[in-house]
Specification:
By secondary structure, this protein is of the alpha/beta class. The protein has one domain (8-209): P-loop containing nucleotide triphosphate hydrolases (Rossmann fold, 3-Layer(aba) Sandwich). The protein is built from 6 helices and 9 strands; from the N terminus they run βββαββαβαααβαββ. It has helices spanning 48-56, 78-84, 100-110, 119-125, 142-151, 172-187; strands at 8-19, 22-33, 37-41, 63-68, 71-72, 85-88, 160-164, 191-195, 206-209. The protein has a 5-stranded parallel beta sheet with strand order 6-7-8-3-9, with helices on both faces. A 4-stranded antiparallel beta sheet has the order 2-1-4-5, covered by helices on one side. β7 (160-164), α6 (172-187) and β8 (191-195) form a beta-alpha-beta unit. The two termini are 18 Å apart.
């Protein structure tokens, strides 16, 4: 699979991954340039999350390698890659006793390249009601927590978004917000790779079906 245009930023070469000593996929070659989006499809257990974790550098491939701007994401290239990466996993990753605003303030403080967007404004963009932004996350609905988790994407200047099931627990309105966020990210030269069971219909996105 090749990029649509421009220099390649994210690339995999003959990537193979396994889980519980079972090979999930192999010989996977991906090439993504600025403005590219890739939607990962497949049944439960097919390897979508494993691939995303491997692209994040959190899972070591069985074979092959992942490169960012021509350099392997491990070793000396790891710091530059981590600075360019934003990851939202299937779990929301929010501190339950903190409010959405406090969670985003922590995320922003940890960013190497934070944006000027205020946490409250980011949450508003994701449709988190104002009265919920200062309540402990443990008191919020699953949909509100998912929106708060996705609002972290607006806290950093990240060239690459890796998203595992971003639509989990979201209604139709939330789906539209996520689609708009990704399309704006792509228009600004970003790259997005995301898994989903429901087609997200991001303009210009390509699909990769992972079959075990």
């Amino acid at each position: 699979m090749t990029a649509t245009s421009g220099p390649i930023r994210l690339k995999t070469e003959l990537l193979a991954c396994e889980r519980d000593q079972r090979r999930l996929f192999g010989d996977l070659d991906l090439s993504l340039a600025a403005g590219d989006a890739l939607e990962l499809r497949g049944a439960n257990g097919s390897g979508k999350t494993t691939l995303l974790l491997t692209l994040c550098g959190l899972n070591a491939p069985q074979e092959g390698r992942v490169l960012w701007d021509g350099a392997p994401i491990s070793g000396s290239g790891r710091a530059a890659y981590q600075a360019a990466l934003a990851w939202v996993g299937h779990k929301d990753g929010l501190k339950a006793e903190l409010s959405p605003v406090e969670n985003l303030e922590v995320a922003r403080a940890l960013c190497q390249a934070p944006t000027d967007i205020r946490p409250a404004d980011a949450l508003d963009r994701l449709g988190v009601q104002r009265r919920a932004t200062r309540r402990a996350c443990r008191t919020l609905s699953a949909g509100q927590r998912r929106r708060a988790a996705l609002a972290r994407l607006l806290m950093a200047e990240s060239g690459l978004w890796l998203l595992d099931e971003p639509l989990a627990a979201l209604d139709e309105a939330g789906e539209g917000i996520v689609r708009s966020l990704i399309e704006e990210h792509l228009a600004g030269g970003g790259i997005a790779v995301y898994s989903t069971h429901r087609p997200l219909r991001v303009a210009g996105s390509r699909e990769l079906e992972i079959c075990p």
